[in-house]
Design brief:
- This protein has 108 residues and is an all-alpha fold.
- The chain is 49% helix and 0% strand.
- The chain is built from three helices and no strands.
Amino acid sequence: MPFNLATVDWIYVAILAVLVFISTFLGSLLSFKHSGRAAVLSALIFAGLFVFWTYYPHRIPGPRALATQKTADTPASTAPTAEPTKPATPAAPRNPVRDITPPASPAR
């Protein structure tokens, strides 16, 4: 194969397949079994669902969010960056319990 199948975003492919299935099903229902009308309706419904899924600001990560995340993870230049400064005092642990011995078992 000319490309690596491991690089394919299979979740995105599955989501698009579900959108196509829904749009084709709705298009065939609305067109009363006329194939030309069903194809046009399916294309319009898919375009609407695709735009909604890709550009609507929902909390599910989609292809647009993953693309911006990947570009944000890669550095813009290879120039060395300054090391972060260490705090003067170490941070206290959030758990106030310092004793880790197990509790005594109840008497039988």
